[in-house]
Amino acid sequence: MVTDDDIILLEQAMLLAQRGEGRVNPNPLVGALIVRDDDVIAQGYHHRCGDLHAEREAFRDAEEKGVDCAGATMYVTLEPCCHQGQQPPCTEAIIEKGISRVVVGLLDPNPLVSGKGVELLRQAGIEVDVLEQAASTVCSDIIATLIKQLKTQNRVFLKYITTGKPWITAKWAMTLDGKIATTTGDSKWITGEKAREHVHLVRRNHTAILCGIGTVLADDPMLNVRISPETLEALDIKEHMLRQPVRIVADRQVRIPMESQLVRTAREYPLVVAYANGADEEKLQLLRDAGVVLWNCNTLSELVQRAGAEKIDSILLESGGTLSEALLREGLIDEVMAYIAPKIIGGKMAKTPVEGEGVTIMSEAIELTDRTITTIGEDVLISGLVNKQDRPSRVDNM
User: Fold this and answer.
1) Among the options 11, 55, 325, 335, which is catalytic?
2) Of the residues 14, 53, 271, 276, which has the fewest C-beta atoms closer than 10 A?
3) Alpha carbon distance 227, 342 (integer Å)
4) pTM above 0.85, yes or no
């Protein structure tokens, strides 16, 4: 039975798990506590893909402290794995260390786990309580809230492991009157310095960044992560450990200039150009020679599927209004982050974040749920999840 104390300790484990943000993909964020007599005697979290899982990190912490874990309780935000991957099964370690009780936040939907980890622990005589299962028998707003928070924390993993498709976040910066550039195309800078630095933190948390060829031709972006030494120190991240996202350009006819920043840095930061049938073979070869990875994708859906197959679990969309509208219309965007600057530039022909034909009546408007509003410097960030219910999608060319 899950108690109030269990909930408090799972919340602590959830906060611990967040420290792995931007480094664990495509693995989940997981935190673990080892508790005896209401005291946390050891703790751990998944630091980086390929490193020890949270449970084994907690046992390592216990060993360094000279703490015996036998008879203690382990709190872990996600069901312990029971299969051999880059790391051995965590269920084996839990059994070997003599843990007497395990409190789990969420079951792992990974088909290789999916309840099997919990069952193995129970077969070994360990008492196991699962918060997600408790919610079906106990009516509690506190439990429901924590489950929602845990699912939100691992929304990228939960989608990717169950569908094979990446979580797609659309990000844009706009003025108060909804413009992303002036009528001349000038967009530097709409938002302030603090908001722009925040964007780089968001980039760090995604495995890839996607833009369209129009953005490349207009802005010649770099699309890498650039974080100040002060911020890196605050995050306890060494610069050489900073993960750079894969940069993806949707470019049907391979119009990307060879002299663009993206192509010139393709050997330093991964660059993918997604092209369609009929693209110029000579240009494709030039891009290959420059170190560019090429994907043949004739639709946006194919591009998203290919990204998932390449173990890209999350994509940050930084594009103009045409590509954003196409992805929204196809139901491929999961989340929106809109940075809004307290500026007005006007202009009937000035670009907006989402273009295309748009909806004809307000009842068809795309709505955001789970909204948050955050002030960053002089700007405001509004974010939320795209409500995809009852919205038919339409396949569109890339």
Assistant:
1) 55
2) 276
3) 24
4) yes
